[in-house]
């Protein structure tokens, strides 16, 4: 049962002090709260969050928005934002009910983020009936992931085992699968072994980076995400992971100040890779991305490209999740 993996209940998490976390500065805390206020103002009447006011990327954005609040220890049915979070959860569960095949969203990115949110909500909501619905949706979502793994070990845009594979989709999907496994959902060892095999095939041992579809197609986001899911797959402290960590560190300060494609997506994984790499790596990395994100937040409380009122882009919840790393309320983000 999920509760075995938790360090705090929702109620405890809301009032807990962040002991031993001086890295969470007052400025960062204010940025988190301002970002959450932005998300509350942008929530649709049906409980979802989307990119255009008409449902674009609603599954992914709703899942990420819920994760942003959970990163502050706020869960559906509890705390100061119990009602809007409950509406967001119920919207996601309603979408799951529409899809008896278990596939959530329109691409595997969305499915991965939704599976992750369901996994981290399971056992943490007020209504037992909602908890049962989360479990049912989560189990079906995991089945989709398991049956769509490519023979080479990765995943691609659609839930088809013959659709190919790339590191970006794979890291989003396996992150969710690792969370579900941690929560008590059965994930075959063979599935994890195939992921490791895939990562080895796209890892450049000379450079340390992970490629998008091959060793030569390296990028910061794939290197960050590849390192993180390799750690989740049991490869912590291997040379494959250690070389990827060195690769990321070698790109400072530019990796923090800009010039990185998919900046927030890359750092969403990079900070968690540093958490898993150990206290020293984390303590060196977090203050740099913390200060960069605080400086990048706009006057409305958002990150990323300008959005219309009532819409969000994925950058805002990801930035909040990164900033909230010191709270460690979400099990998959703990070491």
How does this model look, in words?
- This protein is mostly helical and 335 residues long.
- The chain has one domain (28-333): Alpha/alpha barrel (Glycosyltransferase), CATH 1.50.10.20.
- Helices cover 57% and strands 0% of the residues.
- The chain is built from 14 helices and no strands.
- The longest helix is centred in the middle third of the chain and has 20 residues, at 128-147.
- The radius of gyration is 18 Å and the shape is globular.
- It starts with 9 loop residues before the first helix and ends in a 12-residue tail after the last helix.
End-to-end Cα distance, whole Å, is: 19 Å
The tally of structural domains comes to 1
Mean pLDDT: 92
The sequence of SSEs as H and E is: HHHHHHHHHHHHHH
CATH C-level class: Mainly Alpha
Structural class: mainly alpha
Q: How much of the residues is beta strand, in percent?
A: under 5%
Question: Concise description?
Answer:
This protein is mainly α. The chain has one domain: Glycosyltransferase. It has 14 helices and no strands.
Element layout with pairings:
Elements (H helix, E strand, L loop, with lengths): L9 H6 L10 H17 L15 H13 L11 H17 L9 H14 L6 H20 L19 H17 L5 H14 L17 H16 L3 H12 L3 H4 L5 H15 L1 H18 L18 H9 L12
